[in-house]
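$ fold --in a.seq
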Amino acid sequence: MDYLSFAMDAARRLGADYADIRIQRTQTEMLYLRNLSLKHCNLDELYGYGIRVFKNGAWGFAHNTVFSEEAIEKTVKTAFNIATQSARVAHGTGLTLAHERGYIDTFRSPFSIDPFDIPFAEKIELMREVNQTMLRYNDIKVATFMLECRKDEKLFASTLDSRLDITTVYIEPNFTATAVTAEDSQSRSFREGGHAKGWEWIRSLNLVDKARHVAQEAIMKVHADSLGAEERRTLLLDPIHMSLTMHESVGHPTELDRVLGWEADFAGISFATPEKLRSFQYGSPIVNFVADNTLADGLASAGYDDDGVPNQKWYIVKDGILNEYGTTRATAPFIGQQMSRGCNRATHYYDFPINRIPNLYLEPGKEPLSPNELIADTKDGVLIEGQGSFSIDQHRVNFQFGGDMFWEIKDGKKVRPLKKIIYRSNNPEFWNSVDAICDERYFRTFGVSNCGKGQPGQRGRMTHGGALARFRNIRVGGSQ
């Protein structure tokens, strides 16, 4: 039975202005090891379909898990009735959808070994070896390892005659060593984020060697000094750390639904409002933020979004100036755009797609510059690696961030490890303070798989990245 065509024919018969259907199977595997004890082992599968209908400037949405002509027709009618009733609630002239055409295509994440073909036993054996390696160090009292694998298989059809077959995969390993002394405890983590790759990526990482490094730095950290009182200092931030900073201070503020005030009750609105487009100095002239849903192993790279719009690449910030937003077919017309940038995504079949951050990264510097050269060119500063705590206000302006590992830099050299450090800044002070970025040889990515947004909440995913960058005159100090 061609359920895709049946659903779209039913929507046309009812008089829908537009409709689409997503048939989606999602497999998720979660493994969690604490020390040498397996605490969590779970394999979930969700399978069903969601149907959207657009009528008279309003959306209706319904979902189901029963695959039959009767069930699909009923689901289409439910979505259509919700749309027509929603249109009765006067709100301006309602929504207008940006122009799009139909596509027939197939997309697959670039993986060789399906992570779901690897037995639990092999995965757990690797995790135990990593944790055991960290626990061999006397000061390491706790070792944890979380592994997540996910695969989405999606069929999409619309009344624009799109027919899309999309399969995406990602893996995310994350392990932590906690060092404990009589006076303190400190942790260091291996976090590369999620990558849209297969199990071959895990085998290439040499995680046991990385476990030794993580344990050694956790021990350094627990015996390290803090920095003392807050002062204006130079910061060097590695790309893994910056991925969280750009996510919160650039990614979310440039989601157009947040800019329009649609997203206010959960995670706030945005200061980067439309009158600032093409004029607001978001960062220094060397700051370029690229939205790139064509990124090879990006978590937002799926060929097309859930509007059926092709993945694209564009500048969010160009030469330091706010250039564009992440948009959907429903949000783009509010700022006069005729086409969507393809940022509409849902988590599961039962979720309504919402405006999401694209893959977003800080473009590397154009002149040759290595991390060692950048450190050598820094007289007095702090290098932060990895991610820690963060806080940001409801307009995405003022924020503070911690980190995972800290180094003091004096006269161009890393002189000692530090701990318990935070920095405070705001948009646009922070990104306007960038005066150097290492070149493309040192570009690294970090895939975010747990971006919370929406009510009911959805868990979105996207990839960030960059190269080591320097920030001048930022408030940096020790925390308690």
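$ fold --in b.seq
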Amino acid sequence: MLIKELEEISKIASELGLKLETIYFGGGTPTSLNEAQLKSVTDAVAALFPLEGVREYTIEAGRPDTLNEEKLRIMKAAGVTRISINPQTFKDEILRKIGRCHTAAETIDAFNMARQMGFDNINMDLITNLPGDTPEGFMFSLNKTMELNPESVTVHSLAVKRSSALARTEGINAEWEPSVYENAYKALEEKGYNPYYLYRQSKSAGNRENTGFSKEGFESLYNIYMMEETHTVLAAGAGGVSRLKEPNGEFIDRIFNFKYPYEYVSNFEEILRRKDKIKAFYEF
């Protein structure tokens, strides 16, 4: 069904003359797909969209335990230029507490494997205020991350969702002193990482924002376009939200896909019908 939705998006984009600038495959962990599934999606993207004008192609590899050489090889062959490999923390006891299946050593192995496969634009995510973590523990994780020398680092403030396991157990630590964040940001900047985008999630610890840092020239175009709301985004898949940007104005409209996979599957024809709104928006 995802590929069928991509086919419909491709058809509409072609009819409207929309130019593809970035591809972002994420919002979760696409590499949780098996090798055949991942290849079927990247092959569909290559077959349905002109890629010669694409400036950035990101796949969130996310959890290190979902990566292997074959998946990295599939992504490389597809033309992927940017991936994420997210430690969240380099403390194994904290990873176990938050229900992650990988270890700190597996994060390092996955990163090194991606480097050996030729990926030269890697992002890594860290999370503050994880249950059981401390400011000292977070700085340890940040230093381990900087030792690996990724091209970008995103510092997230833990946001516990209402229905999550953490919400039913320990939840968020007491808010850390502002100096923790100041010291972390200073350490990143001293290593050549500059802040280039930020956003805030509801229920985040201390109501703090998530901040993306990158080395010069490695700022994620997709993240910038999303935060600045300068581009149309045509989304596919469960939970996808298309943002339609008025070509010569500020107006933005949104088209929502059903959030949960069972809704996506059972209401798929409605999802395809909603794509007519894209044509109506541009023909207005």
